[in-house]
Specification:
By secondary structure, this protein is α+β, with helices and mostly antiparallel strands. It contains 4 helices and 8 strands, in the order αβββββαααβββ. The protein starts with 9 loop residues before the first helix and ends in a 9-residue tail after the last strand. Its EC number is 3.2.2.-. Keywords: DNA damage, DNA repair, Glycosidase, Hydrolase.
């Protein structure tokens, strides 16, 4: 997957990103749920003001970088920057399926090996944006890293089966942006946060 893939509107990129494989060091996951955020055209976006802050600066940088933010005083979430420099566009990664690194993910999420997880714990390993980010071991210090030059990262094309498009989750106070249908997920995947 070339950087040019991300140099477009996140609304175009998001459904095509489903099924892709993202590797962060020893963990590889298949992306199955995403949300698009359109910067100053989207009241739900952290970059809605159109002006970079210390926190949101990576969103206004080159496509293919990551933006990691801290929320609710306890969770980190992972985004991939899209579009052109200065636009503030991005895609939130909401859900995935683990391909490699099951034990490392289980340790990060529940403090024990994968084989010792209950069925409920297995089901809830990476089906949500904060869970996914924790599973990758990413924090705000990683915000701004480049998927294409940082040796820890690798991203590969993949393919999704049936894709569902719907409104985004958890943004009730974003004006008309609350109803934007910019969430995409793979219908049959168990890695989706909410169907």
């Amino acid at each position: 997957m070339e950087r040019i893939f991300f140099e477009r509107s996140p609304v175009e990129v998001a459904p095509e990103l489903l099924g892709s494989l993202l590797t962060v060091e020893h963990v590889t996951m298949r992306i199955v749920e995403v949300e698009a955020y359109l910067g100053p055209h989207d009241q739900a976006a952290h970059s809605y003001s159109g002006r970079p802050t210390k926190r949101t600066a990576p969103m206004f940088g080159p496509a293919g970088h990551i933006y990691v933010y801290f929320t609710y005083g306890m969770h980190h979430c992972l985004n991939i920057v899209c579009g052109e420099v200065g636009q503030g566009y991005g895609i939130l990664l909401r859900g995935a399926e683990i391909i490699t690194g099951h034990d490392l993910v289980a340790d990060r999420r529940f403090g024990k090996p994968y084989a010792e997880l209950t069925k409920t714990e297995q089901k809830n390993l990476v089906n949500g944006p904060a869970k996914l980010c924790q599973a990758f071991g990413l924090r705000t210090d990683d915000s701004g890293a480049d998927l294409y030059t940082d040796h820890r990262f690798q991203i590969e094309n993949g393919q999704a089966t049936e894709i569902v498009q719907t409104t985004r989750i958890g943004i009730p106070n974003a004006g008309e942006a609350t109803a934007y249908p910019w969430r995409f997920y793979e219908r049959e995947s168990n890695g989706v946060s909410k169907k």
